[in-house]
């Protein structure tokens, strides 16, 4: 239990000695950390530190040259990102990745694709079954739309939405996959204060109401310190700090590399 009464469980994801190189660039150097069930785990550090690369390793998008990814107590073999997603991981991206011409509702529906059993062929053969399945999916999606308070824009093409709402739709799509672990790469970048407050509240509510474990990359230190249970600090591909917000705030190496200077 944390001081505010939330339940933190056993280790959900364990990153062990991860090293990732792009040609001559070592984006991640021998980093280990774990994420416990139910916690909000932040990853912070200066631009180019390797935070997004780490999330890409977690989601199976990049395969590290060295190291092991453990998930729910088992070593994860090399997998395609969609297979990783099926294991219960969903994410949002640093640069919004939505279908601009599609409605909010349809964009969120795509978040359920990993869970749909009926492929195109079976849909053609068993229209009834596919339809029943689609209705069930739609019901879940409507719940998420209510939860994130975006009912009034459900039919709006995403391309017409202001930035802050697009970010919220991206969160909705990730939630539609009902992930065990939700990974958010700078969900508040470019937002104004009010939008950040809304997004912070939604992240806390998701964690609280669905018990979703959350990994969060964020530059706004106020947000990180408020939301997270534990923080990993990266700098030039190395891990330079790991602990509670108070611990990393008082870590001299972290202050020198990151906290002491301004960031966007
Ligand atoms: N696909 C890629 N090919 C080559 N180099 C890459 C690739 N992705 C990342 N890098 C390099 O790896 C390093 C880490 O980049 P990464 O995007 O992970 O940093 P970051 O911590 O997310 O930074 P930011 O805060 O700016 O988003 C950088 O030097 C970057 O140029
Ligand atoms: Mg990044």
UniProtKB/TrEMBL annotation:
Entry's Gene Ontology cellular component terms: plasma membrane
SUPFAM superfamilies the UniProt entry points to: P-loop containing nucleoside triphosphate hydrolases
Q: Which InterPro entries match?
A: AAA+_ATPase (IPR003593), ABC_AA/LPS_Transport (IPR051120), ABC_transporter-like_ATP-bd (IPR003439), BCA_ABC_TP_C (IPR032823), P-loop_NTPase (IPR027417)
The UniProt keyword set, sorted, is: ATP-binding, Nucleotide-binding, Transport
Q: Which GO terms describe its molecular function?
A: ATP binding; ATP hydrolysis activity
**Residues in domain ABC transporter?**
13-261
Q: Give the domain of life.
A: Bacteria
Say yes or no: keyword ATP-binding present: yes
| CDD domains xrefs | ABC_Mj1267_LivG_branched (cd03219)
Name of the molecule in the record: ABC transporter
Q: List the source organism.
A: Paracoccus sphaerophysae
